[in-house]
Design a protein that fits this description.
- This protein has 353 residues and is mostly helical.
- 52% of the residues lie in helices and 7% in strands.
- The protein folds into three domains: 163 residues, Ribonuclease H-like superfamily/Ribonuclease H (Nucleotidyltransferase, domain 5), CATH 3.30.420.10; 92 residues, HRDC domain (DNA polymerase, domain 1, Orthogonal Bundle); 70 residues, DNA polymerase, domain 1, CATH 1.10.150.
- The strands form two sheets. The protein has a three-stranded antiparallel β-sheet with strand order 1-2-3, covered by helices on one side. A two-stranded parallel ribbon has the order 4-5.
- Helix 4 crosses helix 6.
- The longest helix is centred in the middle third of the chain and has 21 residues.
- It is flat and about 70 Å long.
């Protein structure tokens, strides 16, 4: 069963799942409206059946939506973008892969449309159907190529991990404002203003059903926190505070700035600067050796370095210091295909314990 989804994150807040597209191997296509059909559990039962393989393209967001919102489980997955990565494809867009493998062309992109608006236009219906219509045939071509080069099992293992990956519930993070670019350069007083502005933006976004970036950009939030304008004359001098922004939100922005400025010194937020954990010299040497091995092996294998051995795994392996292929295979996240195909090389690259 081919699967795709469309959300409305560019137009509404919080984002809703606005459309589910399905296609079968026989060429039948269905469009399901989750705004009208509240109970999607019958679909969930199909995806969870042992005989069903769900085919997606770059399906991380689709899976997150369906797992988190509806608790869906997937018995088997095949992600065509993952398959193409293991074939060393230079470009992973669905349009590129369809043209390369099937000679098919997608209609012009409609990713910026408001997919929650009803009724959908004929152009939207055609685009939505086209996104799933060719996926199963594309999967077949990719499987043929992967079998020829002996990498099908690699892709199947990665896709199985994708299917099994749990999705955490979204939790409000009270310190999210500290991770905005430029926040760490602010004074504690500037951070207090930024916190008030960030919370204001969240409130306005929910109240007006608009994505936060359409209220104020992150860059503008940080500029406001730096300048801390006290009146409308100062406010309009800040890039991003256009006449439309100041007309709509100007008073609320100035009130948020004033709240941040009025806080007592003992109430000001501070960013904790946690020192990076020290890495032993022997571990650091293993990290460098693995990086060197990866830089030499990736062109030879014909896949991107980050797929062959992600940076996070390099550190985990270097810390574990496996002495043979069996120990390497037991390191969390290594996967069987890496240990079987490259385990000997990686252990050799690590050098003596």
């Amino acid at each position: 069963m081919a699967l795709d989804t469309e959300g409305d994150s560019l137009h509404h807040y919080p984002e809703r799942l606005a459309l589910v597209q399905l296609a079968s191997a026989s060429g039948d296509v269905w469009l399901v409206d989750p705004l009208a059909v509240e109970d999607l559990s019958p679909l969930g039962r199909i995806f969870a059946e042992a005989g069903t393989t769900t085919v997606l393209h770059a399906g991380d967001n689709d899976l997150t939506h369906l797992k988190r919102r509806y608790g869906f489980r997937f018995a088997s997955l095949f992600d065509t973008a993952v398959g193409a990565r293991f074939l060393g494809a230079a470009a992973l867009g669905l349009d590129v892969l369809l043209e390369r493998y099937l000679g098919a062309r997608l209609p012009p992109s409609r990713q910026k449309d408001d997919w929650s608006a009803r009724p959908l236009t004929e152009a939207q219906l055609y685009y939505a159907a086209a996104d799933v219509f060719h996926l199963i045939e594309l999967k077949g071509r990719l499987v043929d190529e992967l079998e020829r080069c002996g990498r099908l099992a690699w892709v199947e293992e990665e896709c199985a991990a994708l299917a099994a990956q749990p999705v955490a519930e979204r939790v409000e993070d009270p310190n999210a404002f500290t991770r905005l670019k430029g926040a760490r350069e602010l004074s504690p007083r500037g951070l207090a203003v930024l916190k008030e502005l960030y919370e204001l933006r969240e409130h306005l976004a929910r109240t007006h059903d608009r994505p936060p970036f359409k209220i104020l950009s992150e860059e503008t939030l940080v500029r406001l926190a730096q300048a801390a304008p006290r009146d409308g004359r100062e406010l309009v001098q800040i890039p991003g505070c256009t006449p439309k922004v100041t007309a709509r939100w100007g008073d609320a922005i100035l009130e948020a700035v004033a709240r941040g400025l009025a806080l007592g010194d003992d109430e000001l937020p501070r960013i904790e600067h946690r020192p990076r954990p020290r890495i032993a010299a022997a571990v650091q040497r293993r990290i460098e050796r693995l990086r060197q091995w990866r830089s030499e092996a990736a062109p030879r294998v014909g896949i991107e370095p980050g797929l062959l051995l992600p940076n996070r795994l390099i550190t985990v392996i270097a810390l574990a210091g496996p002495r043979d292929r069996a120990e390497l295979a037991r390191v969390d996240g290594v996967r069987r295909w890496r240990a079987e195909a490259f385990g000997g090389e990686m252990v050799a690259a690590l050098g003596p314990a």
